[in-house]
């Protein structure tokens, strides 16, 4: 087992995975520091309103550009020439940015038609909607680098973005409080995208029409993006419902912060899939390759999950005191979320991406839809009775449910496609 894991890590490093790992890990640390600083600089009640608004936007960001960035990475991996890949990027860039602006207008209109439960958050919601197009631009730049297996360059984007975000969040929050924080969230991805755009070496005028740009291309991206919302919804819906049922911005802030570390752990499967998704897509119909990849991946992340749960159980009080002494009162909710995240580490992070690589993004969408329904239903009963502990139980349960469901459905469809 140990030798197998050693081989996995060595192969991962050869593909530039270690550069992505360290960059992503450093980015999470920098993001964590920024969160701590913001907690000190902005009043908890005001910060809760901003978090509430940003949570709503987090539902929409994955479908920015109607999900065309998701189509870019899968269909781009199947294209052979550089000219074709660049033409696909140009198409996604133009169409996706336009639809991202349409989504901004959509958010603004809805903010007036449907009053947020925490009404004071409306202006924050409108301002934060600008995160949709700027995040889209950064995402397609990163994807284009991955398509050409430039994983080290991709890692540089991750770390530069984290540094830009940290500096802007800390400085602007210090001088302009929540307004500065919001502005930093908007401009940081834009600044990073501009810095790395020239490295793509793409002439936007050199475009050739591709036969793959049909309805299925758009449908794949849209459904794939909806499925990516699933993981975010497991806690995002919790935050929205906590705000709805408890009407207390400070409780919203508390839940957001005890979930920071559990959700930050999701960078581990993301690192693997950021490194390997293009390669996995290229070999998705190679049954032996996929079988070995699944075996190695699940074995590695099972051991990682055991280590994480053990560490957090022993040091949970210390970890929570980083946010403040009062957070120790929520140790049980913190541990429930840690256990829940293991379901994503072992199953969802892998099989959700394998379904996408197989072209079955619609299955991920249906899993997400069921998860949304169950999340609302369970939280309807649990939050009023158990508060944020009830929300944590719901999230943890659905993390395991979506992971196991994606594993079962991938095996069924992969076996059919390779018969």
Secondary-structure element order, N to C: HHHHHHHHHHHHHHHH
| First-last Cα distance | 30 Å
Q: What coarse outline follows from CA principal-axis ratios?
A: globular
Report the β-strand fraction as a percent range. Answer: under 5%
Q: Give a quick account of the main beta sheet: strands, pairing sense, barrel closure.
A: none
Low-pLDDT parts are none
What is the overall pLDDT average?
87
Overall SS class: mainly alpha
Helix content range:
over 70%
How many strand units?
A: 0
Number of DSSP helices? 16
Rg estimate, integer Å: 21 Å
Explained architecture:
This protein is an all-alpha fold and 419 residues long. Helix content is 84%, strand content 0%. The protein contains 16 helices and no strands. Helix 7 (131-147) packs across helix 8, helix 14 (331-357) runs antiparallel to helix 15 and helix 14 (331-357) runs parallel beside helix 16. It is globular and about 55 Å long.
